[in-house]
Amino acid sequence: MPKTDGRVLALDLGTSSARALVLSPDASPVPGALARHKIAPTYGGRGEATIDLHDYIEGLLGCLDELQQNGHLTDISDIVLSSQWHSIVALAGTGQALTPVIPWVDTRSVPPTVDSSFDEHAFHARTGAWLHRLYWTRRIPWLRSVVSPSSYAGLPDLVLERLTSERVTSVSIASGTGTLDLATGSYDAEALAVAGVSESQLPAIVPTGWTGVLSSAFALRWPALAGVPIHPPTGDGAASNVGTGGYDETTAAVTVGTSAAVRVVHPIDGAPELPWELWRYRVDDRRAVTGMAFSAAGNLHAWLTAVLQLDAEHREPTGVEIGSSRVIGIPFQAGTRPPETVPGGSGAYFGLSFDDTAADLLAASLQGASLEIDRGLRMLDGLFGRDLQVVLGGGGIDASAWWRKCLTATFARPTEVCAEAEVGARGAAAVALGLSPSPGGESLKPVATDVERVAALRPRYESLRALAAQASAVLNT
Description:
Elements: E1 7-13, E2 17-23, E3 29-38, E4 42-43, E5 49-50, H1 53-69, E6 76-83, E7 89-91, H2 120-127, H3 136-146, E8 151-153, H4 155-164, E9 168-170, H5 171-175, E10 180-181, E11 186-187, H6 189-195, E12 204-206, H7 216-221, E13 234-235, H8 236-244, E14 251-256, E15 260-267, E16 279-282, E17 287-294, H9 298-307, E18 328-330, E19 348-350, H10 358-384, E20 389-393, H11 395-399, H12 401-411, E21 415-418, H13 423-433, E22 440-444, H14 448-475
Parallel strand pairs: 1-6, 6-13, 9-12, 14-20, 20-21
Antiparallel strand pairs: 1-2, 2-3, 4-5, 7-8, 10-11, 14-15, 15-17, 16-17, 18-19, 21-22
Helix pairs in contact: 3-6, 8-13, 9-10, 10-12, 12-14
GO biological process, one term: carbohydrate metabolic process
Organism: Kribbella voronezhensis
Protein name: Gluconokinase
């Protein structure tokens, strides 16, 4: 039976911030019970993107100190974690970190070494991943070429180890490494061979029902949390889906944070055959999540409003009709996710003229991102054999009424909006405790004239998208 008594402490390990917040028994945030540590990744000109591990963990611990100082760590029954997928740290034999945290956005890797018998389509069907630099099959050989690691772990594994003194991972986090056999929930032998590691060099995978407790030192630091069960972490994409209200195969959740994704949660048993264009990870011991991710979303909005120096009053393209802008924006600023190979620095605008305004540029970017997400939604419709219901969630959704309406018109179907912005934390609690949250926000219906304009725009967008991809190849030769 779902456990709903007591409050829940959620640790949300994001790319731009680490947060600790307290949730009520129904997984709703308790007002005022939120502490945040901002994260500033370090970027370099050769594709580098790193996060300081010590600063990250100490900042997260400071968030717990802040909650305790404000009296929020009382009556906590469970501790849950939602974490960014795909991160990796190379470790020495002593367990000391040899590298910073390498997050998904870092583009460094080495080409894969496989023999002629390797079947990447079969590999993708089994692991839900590709041989792409996003995954450990490419990351580990690259790390081994620059340092001499004894083992490897992701950010959530090391946070969990710091809290409990146990270095373990969940089936959800392990699936994001690209080294998991989705059907068995164990490391995939072929993936390990490609990466050149043994299972003993990676964190042990624990079942969904596993729990740990705080080490004695942290139990003294936060006495109210002593003995409180700590649940295995859930990958942020899976957590966000469930937290938004998309927790079965009838519903696609569209979440917009730093990046964006459209995903469907479904049972792992009897899962439909995975198309080459989509990825698949695990939610927990029973469920998988299938979808498509996009590198430009909330970060695109933040970048453009900063570049255009738009104040709070002008951060919406008010006055621009959805689908009507002459300008077409192709949101390849951060490249594309696999299996496409468009690199970062490939964003483009077509149709600019001297009478275009900041609102036109902003509308074109948000419309372009919406059309990208729509491509994934239509693939998922086909995979599950129906026009899926759609729920919208995440900080980007919460921040822009225009974008919510644009997405609804682009999808050409009604949408439900999640009332809670903290969908990752909410979803981690729901996965750990067996809850089924509802969106609880506004219901949107597409405006017929908006739908017609977007339908007319779509073929032009697709043609120019292909042209932008070709131009990126020229730019990067």
